[in-house]
Amino acid sequence: MAGKFQHPVNERLDLCDDCRITAAYRIRWGMRRLAALLIALGLAACATEAPSTRPGAAGAQNGHFYPGLTCAPFARALSGVVLSGDGADWWAEAAGRYPRSQRPAVGSILVFRRNPRLASGHVSVVSRVIDARHISVIHGNWVPRSLDKDQLVVDVSAHNDWTAVRVWYPPSNQLGAYVYATYGFVLARMPLSHDALSARAEAAAREVTGG
Description:
Layout: H1 15-42, E1 61-65, H2 71-79, H3 90-94, E2 100-101, E3 109-112, E4 122-131, E5 134-140, E6 146-155, E7 164-169, E8 174-175, E9 180-186, H4 194-209
Antiparallel strand pairs: 1-6, 2-9, 3-4, 3-9, 4-5, 5-6, 6-7, 7-8, 7-9
Helix pairs in contact: 2-4
C-alpha cells in the first residue's frame, strides 16, 4: 500500500484508501458516541466516579478532560519510556538510551518537532499499526487537556519515513489538513499491547494530573 502515496507538497493521498479509513473511523466513533450517550442516560448515578467528557470533542474515543494534562508526562506514564523535557526534546534525549526508528511499533512514541502550532513539540503513544502509512495513537493534550484514544495518524512523507504526518482532530471529527514535521519513533524496551495501553490510559492520566 505504501507505493500508492504521493509527496505531501500538495497534500495528495490515495483518495480511495484515505477516504475508506477516514470513513471507518467516523462510523466507529459515531457508534461509540451513541453508546456513551445511552450509557450516560441509563447510569447517571455513576457519572461522578469517572472524568467528565469534554464538550465539543466530537468523534473522539473517550475524549475525557483532565485539568493539567500535558502530553509528555502522560506518554511517560503510559508507555514506560522514561524521558524528560518537552515533547520535541525526547528524540535527542533518547539517544543512547532507547532505540529510535523511522518505523512505528505498538507502544513506541511518535515525537513531533516544534513548530508555530506546537511550541514544545508533542509526543503520542502508538496504539495500533494499521499499515505502512496509517497508525493510531493515544495522546494527551492534542485537544487541550483531553485524553484521546486510537486517534488516526497518517504518514505523508515523501519516503514513508514518518517525518511528516497528518493527525485526526476530534472536534472536527476528521483528519486535520495541517502537515506536522516529526522525528520518528522512540521504541519502548517493554512495549505494551494495544489492549493494555487502552486499559491503562485513564489511570495514567489520573496519575499525572492527580485526578
